[in-house]
Amino acid sequence: MSTALKAAIALAAVSALALTACGPTEDGAAGPSGSGSASASASGSPSTSTSASASPSKSASAKPSKSASPATSPTPGSTDPDYDVFPCSTFDVTFTASLAEPTTSSYLLKITNKGTKACRALGHPVVTFGDLDGQATERGAAPGIDDAIRLEPGQSAYAGLMGGAKDGKGKTVNSIALTMSTESDLKQTPLKASTPGLYVSPDKNSVTAWMNNAEDALSL
After folding, report:
1. From CA 217, how far away is CA 160, in angstroms rounded?
2. Hey, what's the signal peptide range on this chain (predicted)?
3. Which secondary-structure segment (H or E) carries 45?
4. Closest to 191 measured CA to CA, from 95, 87, 52, 85
5. d(CA 112, CA 7)
6. 86-219 architecture in CATH?
C-alpha cells in the first residue's frame, strides 16, 4: 500500500469520526423542541386555573338570601263590622220615660242613638229615683257584650221600669235619672225624665235589660 493511499484512508476515518461527533449535536437540537412541548404542557396548566376561576359562578347562581325576598304585605284591617262599635253612653243617646201601668208604677224607658255612629246598649240601664238613695234593681238576665243591642244612628232600645205596687213601705217621686252601663269608668251626665206620682217600693222596684222592642221590655 502506498503512502498516499494510507493518508487517504486515514483522512476518511477522521472525517467519519468527525461526523459521528456531530450526531449528538443534532440530537441535542431536538432538546428545544422537547422544551417547546413542555412549555405547551406548561401553558396547558392555566386551563386548570381558568376552570378554578369559573367556580365562583356557582355563588352567582346561588339562591338569594332571605333579606332579598320581597317584604310581606301589611295585614289588612279588621273586616268585623263591630270592631269599632263602643258602648252607648248618655252622650250618645236621648232618653224618655212614659207611664205604662199606673197600678204597678211601670214606665217604658226609651233611648235613641242621636249620634252619627253605631253604639251598643249594654246590660241594664242604671236608674235612680229622684232624691232617693240607691238605684233600681236589675230584673232578668242581660246578653253579653258581644250580643248586646247595636243601635245605628236613629235606632232605639227599650227597658221596662217597675216602681212597685203601693205597699206603704215606699215613697212617691216625680222624676228619675238614667245613666248607661259602659263597663268602664267613663263619667256620664245623667239623663232625667219626669215621672209624676211614681211610687217606689224599696223591695219590689226593678228594671229590665235593654230590649229591641217595647212589648218585650214591658212583658218581662
Report:
1. 5
2. 1-20
3. none
4. 95
5. 153
6. Sandwich (2.60)
